[in-house]
Amino acid sequence: MGAAALAVTVAVVVLAAASSYLVTWSLLRRNEAQRLDADAALAEQRLGQLLGEEVRAVHELAHNPLLVTALLDSEGRDQYAQPFLRTHVAHGALVALALHDCSGDVVSAVGVARPVRGAAWLAGVVDEGRAHAALDPDATGHLKVMLPVDDPDTAGAEGVLVAELDVATFVGRLTGWLPPDLSLRVVAPDGRVVASAGREAPARWGRTLQLPAPAAELGLRFEASEPEALLRPPGWLAAVYVAASAALAGIALLLSRRAAERITRPLRELESAAGRIAAEGTFRVRVPAEGHDEVARLGGAFNRMLAALEDASEADRAVLRDRQLRAERALRIALLAVEHAPDAMLVVDPCGRVQFANAAAGRFAGRPAPDLLERPLWELVPAIEEADWSRRWSEIRSAGVSVGEHALPACGAEAPRHVEVTARHLEVDGVEHGVVALRDLTEHHQAEAALRLAGVGTLAAGVAHEINNPLTYVLGNLSFVRSGMERLAAAAAPPAPPAAESAGPGELRAQADEALQALDEARQGAERVREIVRALRTFARPADRAREVVDLELAVGTAAVLARNEIRHRARLVVDARPVPRIVASRQRIEQVVLNLLVNAAQAIPEGRADANTITVRIRPGGGGAIVEVEDTGSGMTPEVRARIFEPFFTTKPVGTGTGLGLSICHGIVAELGGRIEAESAPGRGSTLRVILPAGGEPSARRAPEPLTELPRARLLVVDDEAEVGRAIRRLLPAQVEAIVETSAAAALGRVRRGEAFDAVLCDVMMPEMSGFELEAAIRAVRPELAARFVFVTGGAFTPGASERLARAPDRWVEKPVEREALHATLARALRGGAVRDGAADA
Amino acid sequence: MVLVPLLTALLLAAPAAPRPPVRIGLDLEAGHRTSTSDDAIRLGARLAVDEVNAAGGVLGGRLLELVERDNRSVPARGVANLRELATVPDLVAVLCGKFSPVALEQVPVARELGVPFLDPWAAADSITDVGQRPSFAFRLSLRDGWAMPVLLEHLSARGIRRVGLLLPLTSWGRSSHAAAEVWLRAHPEMRAVSVQWFSWGEATLAPQLRTLREAGAQGLLLVANEEDGALLVRDMAALPRPARLPIASHWGIAGGDFAALAGPALKDVELAVVQTFSFAAPRTRRGAALGAAARRAGVARPEALPSATGVAHAYDLVHLLARAVDRAGSTDHHAIRAALEHLPPFEGAVRRYRRPFAPDRHEALGAEDLFMAAWDASGILRPVRGR
Fold first, then answer.
1. Mutate which of A75, A100, A106, A116 to disrupt the B interface (most B C-beta within 10 Å)?
2. Is B189 helix (H, G, I), strand (E, B) or coil?
3. Residue A480: how many CA atoms within 13 Å on its side-chain side?
4. What are the Cα distances from residue A518, in Å, to A95, A472, A496, A514, A527?
5. Which of A72, A80, A100 to mutate to test the interface with B (most CBs of B within 10 A)?
6. What is the pLDDT of residues A302-349, one digit of tens each?
7. How much is the ipTM here?
8. Region label for A771, one of left (φ > 0), alpha (ψ between -120 and 50) or beta (otherwise)
9. pTM higher than 0.90, yes or no?
10. Which residues sit opposite B166 in a β-bridge?
């Protein structure tokens, strides 16, 4: 058994060695033959090309008009024909040229030329216009080409150009680039070898080169050598190999057949049984197990194992199939979920190459997801730099996860996208991957900011209202006290002369003056509070102003004038205005917005280098309307600052420089107009604030300013839940107007219902038990003419309904803190309808 | 038996065996595409032969016969033809064609063969100036040496002081150039500002024309055959009108149907050509009669016949030859050659010849026979100024 196996092995090895030797040798030989074929083809091509060029050149020469002229010109041709021919000789292989006339006489020649009168070929060339080629019997290796020279006037050949080509030299020149084992030779039709190139005395000339026209017309045969086969084995070696292989093959066949009988067949049956089990999934397979040797015992054990497995598998199979189906379904769902996930999902290999990308990733990249495969991650997320990848990858590996937020340049949109990039380490079957999820947070951030601003706005409106009430009486009372003080001081003492330093009336006067000054300062403080509250209210809910068609360029111009002082030491101002759709808005509001943006831009630039910095205002169409963009070259903002700039009181300026309300007001105004305001910035790269205003809208009717009229005699009902406010209003009214102050709407209504006569009602909007509007409705029920003379006093209407109501009657309300002029003007308008008191008195 | 007396009667009734014809060789450029000179020479020779034969022939009743060969304007063919014609029995002379280069190569061969060589057209001076005696070449035509002064005087009379020369790169061009230089040396008021040469079969003459214009030429002296002449006229007509120059041309352009070759461009260019004869204005009675004879021979409008000079020259030459043969009394070449040099006065179509040729003068015409002519709107070449 062992010896037989050895013999088989030896036979197989010997056979394999012999056959591989033969196969290798034949392959090598074939390769060699192919290479030689290619070399010959190259030589063919090159030779054809070079000879073609030579022959073509001579052909062209034969068509030169100067040659025709020389044929026809009997006297002067020596002056030009010879020099002309000479310039063409010794180019390439051309060694001599001769022009013969139609009878064969030499007209002009360079080199030795004899008349060819009577030559056999002459008639063919001249009468039939056929080119002819012949070897020069006088010069070995020289070829003569005879070409007809046509006369355009007679449309026939009138001469012959005989060109002598030195083929030997020409072919010899080829030696340099011929492969070492390739030779070429040129054979004349009579069998004479004209020239040869390459290795000396090759074994065999076996190949005739096929040259293209016009080289083919030369009548020469170009032959290439047939090289000896490089790897020819000796004949006896091949015979020995054949004999040995045959013998060994016979032995091997015998031995293998016997071995198969005893070992191989049972083993093959085992193998085939195992194959069937694998292929069919059935254990109902048995192998023959006759005999008592190891192979038979192995077969018996195999059969027993199959029997046991058959029992167990039936029960498991159903469970298994069910589990498999469920697993497949789950996998499909998971795959679909990932594919259609709103977030971009990518799987990258440790080199950062994308191995999987879902549809959202494709949308992110702006190209189909399959196009992302094998692209590096940093192409999609530029914030992840290629150079930085290996560090980041090890970070993802060690921490398991990496989260970061990046700004991605978006395709086509106006602002970059903010993306949260989450990378997780994933190892599947020992292969490492990174799972990268991109979540677009841009809109989330915008919504968050809008929500925050809305909250702040409501708060601001509430605060404004709360402050305005006390402010109304603080300001009113301060004004009242001051005029009282003035009168008292004037009565107590005349104005103190500058030199008088004594006490007495002079001292009293000085104290009074100081008290007046203190009152003025208090008033200034209160005024400042009023300005802040007004600004807050503008942010929260800008009061409706008269709307008109706004010339944005003009508005920018006005704002630029106002901001000139801020800008001129810091930057140059460039305005780039293009035609935009019609914008309807409050001109003052737009100016206020631009002014704020300009001042902010200027304040982002340090003073002193005005020529190096620029503030650019661009007005252009876009966003469904017009865009006003203010760009500066200032210090720029961090993303954190940029996220908060529209919040009230948020400021980065030194204390005292700004209130932190400028951009909040802008935001409020622009939002009120239905537009939006955006900021783009990066530290050190300046900022761009972009106001997008919607087009269209109708301008509001213009209200002519009214002259301040003296109030007539009148009796007013003043209603405000804060008595101080009511009193302060009363103090702002002239003596001829009598004001009855009530702190409760119910009490005021009671007075009217009781028939008390009033010419008008001055009423707070926001009151605890009954709002101003409710009171008006109640009074309308009993005294409709008085309801028509309602004037509301508001410290900030913060319900939409209230805003709308006030907007409908713009001339019937005054703002807290109440100013005397505004109060008088509004009351005068309300009273202009005529007195109603008498009618009421009659009731 | 009946046949014998019949045959005898027939033989007796037949006239004496006809005497062999006296042959005149024509070596013309019949195979040239555009030349009409050969047609003209053939016509003139035939009309003269017909007249001579109608009057009883030569040598006491031998008829003249024309033997023609085609040289296709190629000197080698001309020489071969001449050698071949010389072997034709009773050939008394050979008339050549228009091309001077052909004639110039034939002249020494004619002398070598001893064949009278009659030139009704080719104008190169040296055809008759070989300086060898005896010379077998006789010309009844103009020569470049006469044509150049006429052309230059024509330009001078037009007020032109700076002339440009446009010449073919052949012996004809060089011969013309030499003649022009002789005249210009004697007339310092006129100056050649540039001399441009062209070869056979050029596609355009615009580069030469541009060079001549840039050199300041006010007028052009042209030596060319019909094709190159037509090319120049078309190139000239393509220029804006103020840039066009008047042309005085040697008569080679009239060696073809020039009006047809030049086409409509011809009326846009001022062009005059030197001539010796015009059917429209013949100077002798025989000249007028030649027109009538041509009409009888089928030429509808002889005055519109291209290359009319060839008709008249060949006609006069054949008449002179016939007289010389009679005078020689045989077809012996040397006797005929000598007779030609001593002919009596003869009124031809071109002019009246007091003594057509002399031993020291093988030119039948003189410089005084030349005049300038121009094509009119109907394509007829008419004298522009009497001489």
1. A75
2. coil
3. 16
4. 123, 19, 18, 6, 14
5. A72
6. 888 888 877 777 777 788 888 889 999 998 898 888 888 888 888 988
7. 0.80
8. beta
9. no
10. B196, B222
